[in-house]
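Lab notebook, bench 4. We co-purified these components, and the gel suggests they stay together. Before we commit to crystallization screens, I want a quick structural picture of the whole thing.
Request: model the full complex, all chains together.
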Amino acid sequence: MTMDISQGSAVVPATTSASTIHPAWVRITHWLNAVAMIVMIGSGWQIYNASPLFGFEFPVQITIGGWLAGALLWHFAAMWLLVVNGIVYITLGIASGRFRRKLFPIRPAEVAADVLAALTGKLAHDDLSVYNAVQRLLYVGVILAGIVIVLSGLAIWKPVQLQELTALFGGYDTARYVHFFAMSAIVGFLLVHITLAVIVPKSLRAMIRGH
Amino acid sequence: MPRMRKGVPGVDPKLLIKDAAALLPDPARRHFLRGTASLGVVTFLTGCDIVDSLSAENALRAVSRFNDRVQAMIFQPNKLAPTYPESAITQPFPFNAYYSEDEAPEVDGQDYKLEIAGLVDNTQPWTLDQLYALPEVSQVTRHICVEGWSAIGKWSGTPLRDFLMRIGADMRAKYVYFICAEGYSNTIDMPTALHPQTQMTFKFADQVLPRKYGFPMKIRMPTKLGFKNPKHVVSLVVTNDDRGGYWEDQGYNWFSGS
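Here is the predicted assembly.
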């Protein structure tokens, strides 16, 4: 890309027609992230089962890796895809101005109104290029959960070399809980996200072909 | 991706699976492949059957070796693992091994000799009395298991670095390899062997190292996961060859640094 990314919305004009909802970089990073997240969550559940934090285990059929060593191999391979892709996504999201335009502002009153509208089936989806207040809140929330899950993961992986980070999460054992709850938040988001993509299929279409 | 499932023309896929199984004598490793394939994630990512899932495993192991290099790079030779007050010690400290507590090897301290081999000037074996006479240091550090749990313990012994100097080890060698009484073994990198907290441990909680924690000697490395800390060590080899290890050979990450 040769264009000046400091010009915000002027970014990627060559590939962005008037009807484009999601530019190519959003779609590519979205689907790479989907693959990375599925592998990280599935293998993470298998790793969790080796030493459960709570009184339950994940059914082995929905985990990845077959046993602890296999799951760790998947987890520490997919982390590179998750992190590199995530950095590209967040950098372009900020530099292009897309985050600022699409995800902000988030006003509590609008969130409350849109939650009510959604629950009563009155939330409109006519214009997919504009996110409603609930979408904004959830998208910002899941990006933050993504950052927390990576940082807490690093704190667990490197509690000596990155001990200052581990201390920031309240120590090794607490960092494991933070990592687990960040996963829970992301899985919760995914359930809503996938359900709504099925209910509003044109949103899924837009994330595949761009419009 | 049904086209890829047809496999190689003229080759009976059933025979290939048989061959693959023969290469995997360990039941746990077969389980790894079965479990991976059963979810279909491998199929989803690579469009593979059992033959291709061997190449998926090879790809994963290649990434794991890349991760070894990354971990060696970010390893800081003088960065100390956090230490804790004795009040933080976990009680009871968990026993963990691939065998049960009463299957732990019984080493006779009278007959015991630590064998020394490889790139060292003095390969004279060491008796327990000689080892106990070495200068003693203690540490209260966190043992972190690859399974995720952790426990704080107190270990006492002599820094491995000082011992390697004493026996005239070639510090430019790449690895130190440990063989244990029960047949366990593993290889560590020289920078970790020379880390100030890497310890030849003879005591746990101020008492002679009990059988369950690795009598007569374990190697305590708070910069590595628990399974990289060998117990019941009977032989120490300074070498330039990576000789692998019990768990490492089955797919656990080789460096496994904390």
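The helical segments of chain B are 2-5, 13-22, 27-39, 41-46, 50-74, 128-132, 160-166, 190-193. Worth comparing against the SEC data before the next meeting. Chain B has two domains: 2-74, 86-250.
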